[in-house]
Amino acid sequence: MPAPSDLLSDPEIAQAYEDVRSDKSETTWLVLKYASATSDNLTLAKTGTGDIAEMTETLGNDEAAYAYVRMKLGNDEYSERTKFVFVVWQGPQTKIMRKAKMSFQSGQVKQVIRTYAVEVQTSDKKELDAEAVTMKLRKAMGANYDRQGTAY
């Protein structure tokens, strides 16, 4: 197996990660995809300045990808917190061998994308809906002051 540095050798990946993490950058998400159907190397497929819905649009049903998203949570501007989400995407038509390799490779990706509040592994775009991810982030944060009838 290649070392993480080989798998993620593109210097643009590290830069995009820093951009998503930085409050000074407008970049709010990045998507890493495999260089080709047979390659294990990841490339920076896309970055964006929109919300998680914008990022989700870049994920194909036959693709495997990793994403990193900056999200703001809070009931008002005074309690707003920035949280990060790591996404492991396996589209519903992703090939079996790619899925099998991903379980190992996601550990290597986490050596580059190290800081996040929650990880979402999914093949269903509904699980990447902003509301669904926000609920996961709130649970990870602990205290939740806006329970609005939701069972926990």
Report on the structure:
The protein is α+β, with helices and mostly antiparallel strands and 152 residues long. The chain has one domain: 3-Layer(aba) Sandwich (Severin), CATH 3.40.20. The chain contains five helices and five strands, in the order ααββαββαβα. It has helices at residues 4-7, 11-21, 52-56, 96-109, 130-141; strands at residues 29-34, 42-48, 64-73, 81-90, 118-122. It has a five-stranded mixed β-sheet with strand order 2-1-3-4-5, with helices on both faces. It is globular. Mean pLDDT is 88; it is low at 1-5 and 148-152. It is found in: Cytoplasm, Cytoskeleton. Residues 5-138 form the ADF-H domain. Belongs to the actin-binding proteins ADF family. Coactosin subfamily. GO terms for molecular function: actin filament binding. This is Actin depolymerizing protein.
Quickly describe the structure.
The protein is an alpha+beta fold and 152 residues long. Helix content is 30%, strand content 25%.
Write out the strand line-up for the largest beta sheet, numbering strands in chain order. Answer: 2-1-3-4-5
Tally of distinct domains: 1
- Span between N and C termini? 41 Å
Could you give the order of the helices and strands? HHEEHEEHEH
| CATH topology-level name | Severin
Q: Low-confidence parts, pLDDT < 50 over ≥5 residues?
A: 1-5, 148-152
- Overall CATH architecture: 3-Layer(aba) Sandwich
Fraction of residues in β-strands: 25-35%
Biggest sheet overview? 5 strands, mixed
Using the CA coordinates, give the radius of gyration.
16 Å
Chain-averaged pLDDT: 88
Number of strands: 5
| Overall geometry | globular
Q: What would you call the quaternary organization?
A: single chain
Q: Number of helical runs? A: 5
GO molecular function, one term: actin filament binding
Protein name: Actin depolymerizing protein
Family: Belongs to the actin-binding proteins ADF family. Coactosin subfamily.
Main location: cytoplasm
